[in-house]
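COURSE: Structural Biology Practicum
ASSIGNMENT: Worksheet 4, Part C
STUDENT ID: 0417
INSTRUCTIONS: Below are two proteins. For each, the amino acid sequence is given first, followed by its structure token string. Answer the questions at the end about the second protein only.

PROTEIN I
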Amino acid sequence: MRLASFKSSFFSTRSPKGAKSYASFLRPSLRTSMALLLAGATMNSALANEQFASCTAALADKAKQEGVSQQTIDDVFPRLVHQDRVIELDRSQPEFVQTFPGYFSKRVTDWRTEKGKEMYAKHDKLLHKLSEKYGVPPHYLLAFWGLETNFGSYKGKMPVLDSLATLACDKRRSTYFTQEFLVAVKLMEREKLQKEDMIGSWAGAMGHTQFMPSAYTHYAIDGDGDGQINLWASEEDALSSAANFLANLGWERSFRWGREVQLPENFDYQESGYKNRKSLSEWHAQGVKKADGSELGEGDTTAYVIVPAGHNGPAFIAYKNFRVIMRWNNSEFYAIAVGVLADRIAGASGIKATLPDLPAYNRKDIIALQSKLNDLGFDVGKPDGIIGPATREGIRNYQISNNMIADGFPGLEVMAALNVELERDKATQS
């Protein structure tokens, strides 16, 4: 039975002969409560629609002031639809904080590797042309493409203009999304796109390479020479735009992202992290080797050590291009995934170290951890449940002060020392 039919039959006050209606079985107070709830929902919905209409009218005025044509305004703005799902996704928090092994194993896969090699063969001429012009090797462009949209097989399903308008009309990040929305409208006009063509993520990222409107406007280029920039329909435009974007972010020609390394048994984990950059010669002198045990090499190139899964997991040494990747997506996990996937597409074997089995924390666990660190004077900023650089630094400083291995990782020993009661343990006790 269709849901609408079910609701209609279930709540119908019309009954077969001799039978009492469903409504007659309800106490008067309950009938009143249900009526009030339904009326309240209707009023809230009507109010939300009225507020959205008022907001989009104001956005139309701003668009006109910024040079958008009246024709575009008349065509687009009356058809904007508030996307409740976008607000849900913006507000929702993942139930668990993803570990590096969990993140990595789902993204750097055999399928993506083989598909990347296939796309390398398909776009070989273009990729080498882009590499020569922008300095970004082909396998890196393919790695970004693979991670962002599975080489174009999934570009998102949300109407971008509706999503951006919804977020622009929401108080939480209105300023940022108002600007992105206006840029998107101007982009649509510039490239002669249709509203229906602009499909992407719930946050407004678009096309093969998931560019936000501002990145699309400033860095997307016409790679196939058809006189239009279309990151949805043209793989050539997408790859060319990615190369241009990375070059503008500061990609260093002839340098890799980093590499997996072996750390000596006596390695001082206080020296890991972005703030502890040293030359390759210095890391070599400390006994850091390549993952296969060969010499790291010497030189003045600066790098830093990353241990994304703590001292029991793999270790990496990161060069300047690693930080460039993080300007695309500000996540060490993402940057490592891009780097390793790129290496695998180019023929390397991937990570040699065994990925450890790590505890999956609830976001509330991490918020409790951050609060404890703040209370003890290890400032990690406002507790948000996200293990970022500030939180890792706070953990590392706490570990140093308590004679623990200072890898900046929230292992169970750290949680126990801080008396963080984990949500899973609470559930077991109850």
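PROTEIN II
(use this one for the questions)
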Amino acid sequence: MLNIHKKIKMFFIKILFINFLIYFYIILAKANEVSPTIVNPKEIGLSLEKLKNIDRKFNELIENNEIPGAVVAISRYGKVGYLKAFGMQDPVKKIEMSIDSIFRIYSMTKPIVSVGAMMLNENGKIYLDETLDKYIPEFSDMYVSKEIFESNISKESIIKANKKIKLHDLLRHTSGFTYGRFGDSYAKRRLRDSVLGKRPLPANMTSNDFVIELSKYPLADYPGESWEYGRSTDVLGRVIEIASNKSLESFLDENIFSLLNMRDTGFYVERKNWNRIAEPFKDKEPSLINITKRPLFFKGGHGLVSTVPDYINFCHMMLNKGKFKGNQFLSKKTVEYMTTNHLHNNIKRSTSRIPGDGYGFGLGFAVRENDGVSVWPGTKGDYYWLGYGGTYFWIDPIEELVAISMTQSVTKRDKINRLMRSLVYQAINE
């Protein structure tokens, strides 16, 4: 009888041990998904000594109270050789920055949504030469706001658009939509003074409400004739919803985030992860969007949150011509098409500071046209984008390089972006 009890006891102990092992390996696997494997920098042609300059410079920024903290990553050949967290994630609560801290990435949403649109294009769900009004009829009759002079006095002239907005225009920002910022014009003032010029947008606004409201305002220029940074990708997000018959949130979750192990990327942060949200200096920076509540309007132009490990997976997919761990997100030719300049010589370039000298624009990314011209180090064909809140990335296909920095500082973002270019390229020694 005792032997039977002993055997039963041993059986349950074995079961408990097996369950523990299973649980341990699940946790380990999840941890590996979040934290990419770090290789010796020398293995990917990065100088250990030169990488110390990145440490020194970011620690200096923190010591000088220019930024609360940051996360920086560099990879080559699809391997991460540098991934570090600096300073404070939350300067008020005194929470240290970690590599999986969650950031508001603002306009770094745009490249992801653009990839989503091109996935639909590959599947024949949308075509780039289709006009926007096929999906949203309110955009069928658009007008353009032009400045004219009468007796040297500036006046606004509202003129019927000479052509319709195409989906191609949304992807390359030649739709005529504007933000109302980055310079001044009658069209920008109109939008700036409207409900769409408010920060944040009304909490009860849906994506459909948004596009209908936007359709009421004149364009900043004729479609297809000038590059103007604006609401194009927000409208593109609504097109994705209509073409896929899914919310933008669901579409991106199912087709991109889940397959790229972008487990912390989405349109809000769940309560269990609020302790991982990176925050700015409250007294030195503009207020940033609230990301603790699920929004009604999933903003394709600036609504996502993410982490450096998540976003580097997205970048690796792009660098690898649309592939990631056995999944083919886009074809090689589509990636090449997206990361080629789409602004021919007849398209006027905005006078705003982006995409910058030496850069044209592809489909969701600024694209370097020449090795010279730009004041930033780089290589012809590299492509990048940035976020209002202080996030930045670029991909250099020639060097097989990905670099990402994330902080939450509006006021210091330009300085950091310039620094990143210099600091990363100086560390390459082969």
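ANSWER KEY EXCERPT:
Q1: The first helix runs from residue 2 to 34.
Q2: The first strand starts at residue 69 and ends at 76.
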